[in-house]
Every structure is written in C-alpha cells, then in structure tokens.
Specification:
single chain; alpha/beta; Rossmann fold; 2 domains; five-stranded parallel beta sheet; 32% helix; elongated
C-alpha cells in the first residue's frame, strides 16, 4: 500500500525546515501532528502531601523543560523564593538554555551534561554533602533513580506534573496510512481513546525499545521501527519504508 497520509503523535515542530517538512515535500505526503498525551501540573497540596519542602534543597536536578516550568510554577504558587545560590544540574544544553526563562544564567551555578546526567557524575560527587531535588512527572525512567542511587547522594523525587491521555474523539472517523508513536504513553492513549481499534492496513511506526514493547503488548503490528544503525531518526525510517514499498 502506498503511503499518502501520516499522523505523528507529537506537537508539530516549530522549525518549518524540520525533517518532516522535507519528507512531506519530497514524497507529496499529508503529515498531521497531534499530541496523544499532554502534561498537567499538580498543585501545592499535592506537593505538601509528598512532604516536600523546597527550602530543604540546595541543588535541583532538571531533566526536561517541563521539570523547569513546573518547579518554578510551584515555587511561585507556594510563595517560595528560590535562592540565588541554588545549584542546577541540567541533563542537557537544551534544558540549561531553557532555564534562562527563569534565572539570570551568568549569576547562577549551573552544571550541564552533554547528553545525560551521567556526564555530571564527578560534579554530583563534589556536592555529595548537599541535598538534591529531582522535579519529575509521574512517569520516570528507572535509569535516572538508578544512577542517582549509585552516586550515594541525598536526593528526593518530587512529582510536580503528570502525563495525561489526550481526548482524541474527533479523530474517530479519520484514517491515516501511518500512525507514528514515540512513547508507551502514546500507545496507551490510542487504546484508551479507541478501545475497539483494529489495525487492518494501518501502518504503525514506533521509536525506541519501550515503545516497541508497548506496541507488542498491545498486539499491534509494527511496520516501521527506529532508531537503527541505518535509520537513526523516525523520518529516515519512514522514508526507507516508503522507498521499499514504491518499487
């Protein structure tokens, strides 16, 4: 079956020159974007219920822009003035750059990993006598707590936001040749919104091992998979599939 329409279960890229735009133009595709999940913040009562007091922590571990937003949102909601001496441990440069939305970058102690928190192992150990706060969602990959536990530092997780299934009821009568997923939560949202979903000729594209596992457990047929050595990105995997099925 020739691919003509694709639904990507993520927000549309802000960059108009994204790989999806090039893929769309090259193969004359209709590509729509729709988040299958979204993030909702918890309130101050939820934080207090977790027995979290921001004043107890001199170091904050930030793994995403959501963690930045919700840490400062709740600090304001709880009327907590974040100290100028607070140390920030950012998972990547993108997270550190986003932090500038809330703090004057040059006046803060900010430590940045190249790709992951593991890059900051030596820095964490340098401040092993201090207390660390990890703002997170209700879903947290085991690798992060495993890494922090292995360091032997005093750290606490604060669930400041949660991942929620989006309402997709308006898509019930809309069909696409390919559905693209990047997380197990996206698969969960599909089945939550459409419990009677039948795949038939619809192609399922998945990114990452945990998404593959979720699709397998949902008994979905996986037609496109990334990353791989040959196709490290989803757009490359889709293009390879299109090329192999147009012969």
């Amino acid at each position: 079956m020739k691919v003509k329409t694709i639904l990507v279960s993520q927000p549309e890229p802000a960059n108009e020159n994204s790989p999806y735009t090039r893929l769309k133009d090259k193969h004359n595709l209709k590509i729509d974007f729709r988040p299958f999940i979204h993030v909702e913040g918890v309130d101050a009562k939820d934080v207090r219920r977790q027995k979290i007091d921001f004043a107890d922590y001199s170091c904050v571990i930030l793994t995403s822009r959501n963690s930045v937003d919700h840490f400062f949102r709740l600090a304001e909601e709880m009327r907590f003035k974040v100290s100028d001496t607070t140390k920030y441990f950012c998972q990547s440069e993108a997270v550190a750059f986003y932090l500038q939305k809330y703090v004057v970058y040059r006046k803060r102690k900010i430590y940045v990993g190249q790709k992951s928190l593991n890059d900051l192992e030596a820095v964490f150990k340098k401040f092993s006598d201090e207390k660390f706060l990890l703002p997170s969602s209700d879903i947290l990959k085991p690798a992060t707590p495993d890494f922090l536990d292995g360091l032997g530092i005093d750290w606490t997780r604060a669930q400041l936001y949660k991942t929620v299934v989006s309402d997709l009821s308006d898509l019930r009568d809309v069909s696409y040749d390919v559905l693209v997923f990047f997380s197990p939560s996206g698969i969960e949202s599909l089945l939550h919104n459409f419990p009677d979903f039948e795949q038939n000729n619809t192609k399922i594209a998945v990114y990452g091992n945990t998404t593959v596992q979720a699709a397998d457990e949902a008994k979905l047929r996986i037609d496109i998979k990334a990353p791989s050595d040959e196709t490290p990105s989803m757009t490359m995997a889709i293009e390879k599939y299109i090329a192999s099925n147009s012969k």
